[in-house]
Amino acid sequence: MLLLNPLTWLLAKLRRPATPSALPSAQTPSPSVLTGLPVNPPAPPTEAERAARQQQREQAFERAYVQQFSQAMQQGRMHTAQPPELLRALHLLRHNQADQEQASQYGHWAEQLRLATEAQALRAAAEYHGWHHALCRDFGQATGTKLSRHQIEPGMTLEMVLAAFGTPTTVQDVTAGNPDLYTLRYGSPETGSIIELHQGVVTRATIGTVAFPECVYDLPDISGCQ
Question: 131-155: buried (b, 16+ CB within 10 Å) or exposed (e) per residue?
């Protein structure tokens, strides 16, 4: 029998290609490494689960708002309190952001798109209620509500018009040589709004197609709203 030199036998064994089963497990990437997603991500929430989650969040907001409202009354801060519609929209918007991050983590792209659309509606509602609240704070409840509906009446001031409509598209003199009488125009000549003022007071207004003004008030901090 031919006996191999132990050194020759060892070298031959080391040079032999390894079988797939002998490869370290670390060299075989798992699906989660390749895709960045969990191996078995949970299914997207059903309509019933979304409704239950929404109800829980609504109830949590109501409890937090009642507590904050009571504290504001005790401390005499009612004049600075934000309206519940605004705080509710911001509360749900914060949860929506967390839901979007989770949907992205699990690869639920359709759910993430649905949440992004929902976030746009919540953000628009928050901006509107914040704007309406600021108008009522600055000009009174009755006038502020009219301005939030773009209802301009004779006797209103230039400041009110700018708060409701934002920067005009054009400003032109009505009568040459009379700088106290001028017209603000918003939008296109066919469908826009025309507001005449004399010495900063509205004398006539024709309201056409309106848009949300660019000068949106800053939204409040809701870090304490759970």
Answer: bbbbbbeebeeebbebbbebebeee
Residue 22 has pLDDT above 90, yes or no: no
Domain 150-206: give its CATH code: 3.30.1450.10
Long-range contacts of 74-82 (CB under 8 A, 24+ apart): 82/130, 82/133, 82/220
Give the model's confidence band at 142: pLDDT under 50 very low, under 70 low, under 90 confident, else very high: very high
Cα(103)–Cα(126) distance, integer angstroms = 23
Burial 104-121 (b: 16+ CB within 10 A, else e): eebebeebbebbeeebee
CA distance 224 to 90: 11
Residue 167 to residue 193: CA distance in whole angstroms: 12
Question: How far apart (Å, rounded) are the C-alpha atoms in residues 125 and 90?
Answer: 9
* pLDDT (average), residues 196-217: 86
> For residue 164, what pLDDT is reported?
92
Token duo for residue 203: 């004398």
**Whether 93 contacts 122, CB under 8 Å:** yes
